[in-house]
Amino acid sequence: MNPPTYEIIIGLEVHVQLATRTKLFCRCSTQFGASPNTQTCPVCTGSPGALPVMNRHAFQLSLQTAVALNCEIPRFTKWDRKQYYYPDLPKGYQISQFDLPMSEHGWLEISDPDGAFPTKRVGITRAHLEEDAGKSMHDEAAGKADSRIDLNRTGTPLLEIVSEPDMRSPLEAKAYLTELRLLLTYLQVSDCNMQEGSLRVDANINLGIPTDDGEIRTPIVEVKNMNSFRAVERALAYEAERQYQVWQETGHRIGDVPKQTRGWDDQAQVTKGQRSKEESSDYRYFPDPDLIPVTVSEEQIDEVVKKQPELPAALRERLQANYKLSHYDADVMVNQGRALVDYFIEVADRSQDAKRATNWVQQDVMRTLNENGIGIDEFPINAERLAELVLAIKNGELDSSRSRDVFQFMMDEKSDLQAALKALGIEKVDDSVLVNLCRTLLEANPKVVADVQAGKQQAIGALIGQAKKQNPNVNPGQVREICLQLIQEMPS
Ligand code: ZN
Ligand code: MN
Hints:
Blueprint: E1 7-17, H1 56-68, E2 76-77, E3 80-83, E4 93-96, E5 103-110, E6 120-131, E7 135-139, E8 146-150, E9 157-163, H2 170-187, E10 199-211, E11 214-217, E12 221-226, H3 229-249, E13 260-265, E14 270-273, E15 286-287, E16 294-295, H4 298-306, H5 312-323, H6 327-335, H7 338-351, H8 354-372, H9 383-394, H10 400-413, H11 417-423, H12 431-444, H13 446-453, H14 461-470, H15 476-489
Parallel strand pairs: 12-13
Antiparallel strand pairs: 1-9, 1-10, 2-16, 3-4, 3-15, 5-6, 6-9, 7-8, 10-11, 10-12, 13-14
The chain binds zinc ion (ZN) and manganese (II) ion.
Manganese (II) ion binds near residues 15 and 160.
């Protein structure tokens, strides 16, 4: 592979809707999908004289996230008005945090299960709380060019998480987003539903191009309007190539170009120029006189640290260390969510057979979940019962060829192992019965005996089929073992 002709520099801004029942500064509901403008009040629509009061729960969720992102939490944080005019912002300003955000200087570790890039830390510049704006609906159906505004979303709490420009490829950007979403989901601070706008991503991207006069950096472009992680990955790959082309076409002149904003067109798979980006001075930030600053105590942070759930990275490590999962398998499992991981751990612990537990959970259980679009809580075989199945296979009471039938039966009939075995006529064959059966087979097949004695152990295979025909409940492994034992005891 040729060395790359440029380095891609990516930073991401993620807006996460926090999972509160009510808005950030009023008691209106945040429920998604209600009829337009039914979840508003004088505070979130900006009636004169209406006073905002901070939602403590929203701040608590932000603290949990900031701690999990290894951020420093200042003891004092305040609210600022970010002023701009837009029809979906009736107050004429957004309440946000400017120079004293509630957290800064954190990091999130990202890795690639296939090892496409080395594990690295992406810096978190800051995470701050702010309110969402409303939604403009441009309805051009039926020949009408009708624009309407829905203010239900106005005032919904958002945590804006800004990363350092530490990512070096679209793949790293996707890995960062995936890990961040997983973290937020494990913390239960957001549902992270991109379709409903609970997680929105903007990307800043430029190139570092090595030249004889040192590295040249192309102007930073902010890419918006990406509706999935896949779209982010594609938009960034496209944008990197585009910037490189522009750099080549303009004769390598990089002037004082203002920061540009471009929107991703998912249909056309290109980015298109939008309005040029405001500088922060254009917003005329100033402290919101209606809100008191927030002080955060040492005890408050200690409490959050103490109550922090096990995070995805730690859980992945535990699965690898204690259950011998590969990085890849641990990743797959952790991505399914905490409930599935707990299910797996219970099966593995009860059966004391992590390897078989991994195979059953990752293959049969997860396939069924995917096929039926259900979660592990709705899965008909609970962990205790699956562990019984795994144990029966481990102890040789059930051979793997029949275990799938048993699994299917337990699933269909919501039965336990014993009921499934009974219904399917599977019972453990008595040792003496098994020995007699093997003896009879060996007497009837002197050629096999001779072959084995001549060193061809695989000749036994022919007897296993016969044994199963005579008694479907026999365990092939046991038949093999007993037959070999009997041949060894024969006078040669
Ligand atoms: Zn309201
Ligand atoms: Mn923002």
